[in-house]
Amino acid sequence: MTSAQVDKQYDGNEAVAGGTSGEGYQRGLGARQIQMIAIGGAIGTGLFLGAGKGISKAGPSLILVYALAGLVIFFIMRALGELLMYRPVSGSFSEYAREFIGPFAGFVTGWTYWLFWVVTGITEVTAASEYMQFWTKNADGWLNQPQWVFALIFTVVLFGANLISVKLFGELEFWFSMIKVTAIIGMILICAGILTIGFSDAADSASMSLLWSEGGFFPHGVGNSLMTLHLVMFAFMAVELVGVTAGESKDPKTVLPKAINTVPWRIAVFYVGALIMILSVVPWTHFQPGVSPFVAAFEKMGLGIGAAIVNFVVLTAALSSCNSGMYSTGRMLRDLALSGQGPKFFTKLTKNGLPLVGTSFSASLMLFGVWINYEFPGEAFDYVVSFATISGMWAWIMILISQLKYRRKADRGELPQSSFKAPGAPYTSMFALAFIAAAIVLMGVDEEARISLYFAPLWALILTVGYLAVQRRKQAAAPALEDTKS
């Protein structure tokens, strides 16, 4: 970044309704939408479905793992918040990596985060179409359609919504998040009623003592509890999405800090609180991998409608994730193009300030992925999906390293201080980096999760070749540019 850009640090005055940012985007996301995007980003299928596997491996101690990982996520988000208040841009962590670490780091971060959301979009739209089978398997008429039809419908509808306006994207995320939040709060209230009033079939055995009476708080040992760390970290993927909205927030100086500061209570309520209540009503031994703990809990309570409710919630969670993928991939491709690290045609915006080409390109790949999943539903696709975990963690690593480097420059007076400093930094950021490193090491130890690491060297090689090609093209274009000027 040039000294002129530093001097012209964003001061929040672009927050006028209907105005555009310096990047050409319209600031159409209000406080209500940003808050729910921040909340919804931390709640997805990793909680509604993935927690079943974690409970079966770690028992009640999974609560502690979620709490510890949640603390680290808060450190990551406060580091991101410090950078956002220094310079709120849509490229977010890719732009910060480029500025504070180097062009190659920005290139890797941008393309890796783009791949993360493309892969996530593929899996989530496919999952959504699978969830529809719950409603359509016994239906007649137009509802009785094969899975690929719903995958196509969902992708086209979400793609269309993302091309109308950023405000519509925000509204969709608002209501998707509202459904998820309502479901979790409803479950917590029901469990609280069982524990205090004593209704439903689970009342006779429900007790807080279930957290330690069924083989102890660490029934399989501390080691097995640690082996769930990568599952827990995956559940928190997309919490950083709020950073990508910075370039389109109406008042980022006010809205983004408030959204980031809600991270502790979000995790405390929706993860730790929900698991404490569920495991106090239903013994942890009743849960198994592949089965939503929410569904299992409803069945134990004798509430048959629970399966239908949870299926609807996970359907909206999958659609929410795919919607976020449509949004973020277009912005990330445009940021790469603006920095000269991607094809120039990705820089084009519609009259509404939307990255049409980048979003369309990403959506087409998501459709292609659905076709692959339909035609070749073997292990190869699952291996590709597993790469999402490590690619998502890369974004967190870049956020933390960029914040550490920014803080050093700001403390030396080389850059303006952020108005939203991360508490405890640099120590909290270094702790978060060590925690992520430990999670990656444990992924290598876990036979089931190890496959996630196998794709990293191949992707690194592809990115290295791509970066060298970009640099060679820039060097070739430089003499021609000089001749034009002369």
Automatic annotation (TrEMBL):
User: What is the membrane topology listed in the Swiss-Prot or TrEMBL record?
Assistant: Multi-pass membrane protein
Which superkingdom?
Answer: Bacteria
What broad class describes the main subcellular location of this protein?
membrane
Q: Which protein are we looking at?
A: Amino acid permease
The record's subcellular locations are: Cell membrane
Q: Which family does it belong to?
A: Belongs to the amino acid-polyamine-organocation (APC) superfamily. Amino acid transporter (AAT) (TC 2.A.3.1) family.
Gene3D superfamilies in the cross-refs: Amino acid/polyamine transporter I
Q: What are the record keywords, sorted?
A: Amino-acid transport, Cell membrane, Membrane, Transmembrane, Transmembrane helix, Transport
All residue ranges annotated as the Amino acid permease/ SLC12A domain in the record: 34-475
Organism listed in the record: Streptomyces monticola
Q: Does the keyword Transport apply?
A: yes
Q: Tell me where the transmembrane regions lie.
A: 36-55, 61-80, 100-128, 148-169, 181-202, 222-242, 263-282, 302-322, 354-374, 380-404, 425-445, 451-470
Keyword flag Amino-acid biosynthesis = no
